[in-house]
Amino acid sequence: MTQKILIVAGDAAESLEVLYPYQRLREEGYEVHIAAPTRKTLRFVVHDFEPGFDTYTEKPGYTWPADLAFSDVDPGDYIALVLPGGRAPEYLRNDAELRKIVKAFFDTDKPVAQICHGPLLTAAVDALRGRRVTAYPALELDMQAAGATFQDAEAVVDGTLVSSRAWPDHPGWMREFLTVLRAKAPVS
């Protein structure tokens, strides 16, 4: 039976931060499902960096179907979790079903990959206290308020938690996450 990995997303998730791990993990032989508040076609965004802007810009991105709703997810069916960034985590962290899912992965010490604003979801279930993480640099104070030690690095590994700043860091992020996956939950 193929090992399954769950990616959680919503409208305004960053296109590359959903689709790069989705494709990379499938390439490795994992079955990957995308869950959202409801089973629907999601509208992702593209965050880009432009000269003269103090922060990233946001443009419409790809659309992609969610395989299942959060209420349909059984965390026990999955060996790992991916938390993409974009604006989606800002409102997804308020979803009680999603908080239960995220907490279940930490309670069972399953691998979790988070990037950009994705750590807002782990902070919402108090899973960052005492951990080392990275995130989009503007979230440094949020990570510290959640009890984490923030490191401005391409990828930070703390046990089974692998975090990264943003999509330009994908190679280092997925390299480290795959190292954790191969040790903890190899493709069967």
UniProtKB/TrEMBL annotation:
SUPFAM superfamilies found in the cross-reference section: Class I glutamine amidotransferase-like
Similarity annotation: Belongs to the peptidase C56 family.
Record's protein name: DJ-1/PfpI family protein
Pfam families: DJ-1_PfpI (PF01965)
Domain DJ-1/PfpI: 4-178
Organism annotation: Streptomyces glomeratus
Lineage start: Bacteria, Bacillati, Actinomycetota, Actinomycetes, Kitasatosporales
CDD domains for this protein: GATase1_PfpI_1 (cd03169)
